[in-house]
Amino acid sequence: MTRLALVITALTSLSRGVLGALQTCGQAQYDPAQYVCWSNQFLCPVTAGEGLSYCNGACYSKFMYTCANNILTLLEPVDTPFTLTVSNPTLSIHDKPITAGGLRLSLNGQTSSYCPSVVGDACPPGNTTSIVAGYGGASMNTLVPGGQRIYLDPSWNVAYTQAHSAYIPSGSLTTGFAAYKDGGFVNLNGNGWGWVACPPRASGPAGPAWNLIARNETNAESLNYCTPINLKVNPFPSRAAAWQYT
Ligand SMILES: *[C@@H]1O[C@H](CO)[C@@H](O)[C@H](O)[C@H]1NC(C)=O
Ligand SMILES: *[C@@H]1O[C@H](CO)[C@@H](O)[C@H](O)[C@H]1NC(C)=O
User: Fold this and answer.
1) How many domains does the chain have?
2) Residue 100 and residue 244: Cα distance in Å, rounded?
């Protein structure tokens, strides 16, 4: 790009902030906050802050698909442990970790874990929240016998079972999750409405952690104070990250 083009781009983004200026894509005009233009002819929407990519007639999310030889292809599932980070560049918590605490997964919180003293040196550090996924379900990446299963609770918050307990409230969902290599952790329940990040509410528990909630057709309206996000999968070494999360 030439120096002049850079200046023009800078001016365009400046005026866009002030005026919401439209740009052109072939014959069409579009708002760059809402669409991306591919090859000066195809418009794809921006969802969860991600300008969708284009593959031979289809717009797709890089958190789930790739375009191989012009064919839309699902990314490979991840069968090793991973951590998750928030992805939506419009949010202050972009790139912040998903954290386990209070038997819930939150955004930008503190990882909360425990290891009995008898385990001694074999205790993993327990300071990172890591997950494993497979067979449609997901669990916390822990050593505790019985494991800690991840589920959507009846309010579609993301929760995990307490160590040494298989208790899951009735009306919860334990399947419908998938994690993709170099992609995202997705919720396939409820027709792909995706995840939202809900800011801490004045009336709610204090602290910097945001709530992670799975959206669907029914709850979308009540979650309009929240922002759609993707959950980005990041590789984690093939070992347990904690004895148990609390
Ligand atoms: C977690 O603890 C280990 C061992 O004490 C340390 O090396 C690592 O940097 C810590 N990681 C984070 C994310 O704090
Ligand atoms: C959507 O989530 C709400 C909880 O927020 C739940 O009560 C409802 O059953 C879910 N709707 C669908 C269609 O699954």
Assistant:
1) 2
2) 10
